[in-house]
Amino acid sequence: EDAAEESNISAELIAHRKRLVDEWNAWRARCRKDISDEKRSRGIRNDGREHGDEEKEEIE
Amino acid sequence: MRPILLQGHERSLTQIKFNREGDLLFSCSKDHVINVWFSHNGERLGTYNGHNGTVWTIDVDSQSRYLVSGSADNTLKLWEVSTGKCLFTWEFPTAVKRVSFSDDDEQVVCITEQRMGYQGAIRVFRLNFDGDGKDQDPEPERFFNPIGSKATVCAFTFMKNLIVTGHESGKVALIDVATGDEIQTNERAHMDIITDLQMGPDGTYFITSSKDKVARIHDTKTLRVLKTFSTETPLNSAAIAPNRPYVLLGGGQEAMQVTTTSLRQGKFETRFWHKVFEEEVGRVKGHFGPINTIAAHPAGTGYASGGEDGFVRMHHYDDSYFKSKPYGDLEIDE
């Protein structure tokens, strides 16, 4: 019975942790978009160097 | 995990910083000296002599070419890393408490203390490396006095012209350096003085530590608190471990209370917390006094801590650190 209770608690904990990781990863994905938007608006290529108007490079 | 003891400072450490590759560790201290060490063996590579007061803060550029330092002697200094030469000195009416390079190495932000009728100030300098580095503009590109509680820590963000600041009151603010305006604030980020602020890997989040015994991870853009790490000791420093989902926290009781505090209470340990689950995962002992500053190796292979005891301890992680998965196989994004 104790073992059953314990596995129940750990199942809850595992579900809780999974939820935290999912939330974190979803937020990280939004951050990566913010970073690429910011770089695009500043005219910085993904390698971090600035470029002029003469060329537009696709951001991967 | 046997640490390497870096012996060379005669007084307590105030800040330590790795260069981008992590092969060098810079340290500054109340003994007026800045040192640079090889992180793999702890050998001292050199010193930067010239300050006449506690060196409160240092930062190194991404190319490991230039170092900036701020001191209680009311100066900000620019150094050439490889030669140890001081290239330029800026003078202020009060002490420099925090310096930080921008990601592109072209700017430096610095906080000067509020004291003797002078307001606390934040200045941004644009550096000139066209010549030998000695031809610097003595005037800042940006200058403003933050309103309200005085700023203690600051850093550039990934957003143009925006810096993030931590304050004595526990406030965190996002400030436009062009106008000095606060774009976002969280007045109650902490309940006491903010002691450290370190950016995450891509700058979209940062960690703060505070005397309120808590460290927090904040979303840089919104200043929303994402994670809270509550300890039982005042915190002086917090770092984010690259490649593994941990944060490192350090602190301890103030020196004046040390005599009444037993070492065995474990106040002087570096604490590892799981950054997503907000659970403590381990502690590393070592220092004989409060931990003042922690830096994570940028490759995620180790960390260093600087103590009130005057020692820097460089730790290289064992294999077990990389293999352990204390919380299963969940994949966590950096």
From TrEMBL, chain B:
Any one GO cellular component localisation term in the record: eukaryotic 43S preinitiation complex
Coiled coil start-end: none
InterPro entries: eIF3i, WD40/YVTN_repeat-like_dom_sf, WD40_repeat_CS, WD40_repeat_dom_sf, WD40_rpt
Gene3D superfamilies (alphabetical): YVTN repeat-like/Quinoprotein amine dehydrogenase
Cell compartments where the protein resides: Cytoplasm
One MF annotation (Gene Ontology) recorded for this entry: translation initiation factor activity
GO biological process: formation of cytoplasmic translation initiation complex
Keywords: Cytoplasm, Initiation factor, Protein biosynthesis, Repeat, WD repeat
Pfam family, one: EIF3I
UniProt repeat feature WD, residue ranges: 6-47, 48-89, 187-228
Family: Belongs to the eIF-3 subunit I family.
Quaternary state and interactors: Component of the eukaryotic translation initiation factor 3 (eIF-3) complex.
Functional description taken from the UniProt entry: Component of the eukaryotic translation initiation factor 3 (eIF-3) complex, which is involved in protein synthesis of a specialized repertoire of mRNAs and, together with other initiation factors, stimulates binding of mRNA and methionyl-tRNAi to the 40S ribosome. The eIF-3 complex specifically targets and initiates translation of a subset of mRNAs involved in cell proliferation.
Protein name: Eukaryotic translation initiation factor 3 subunit I
Originating gene: TIF34
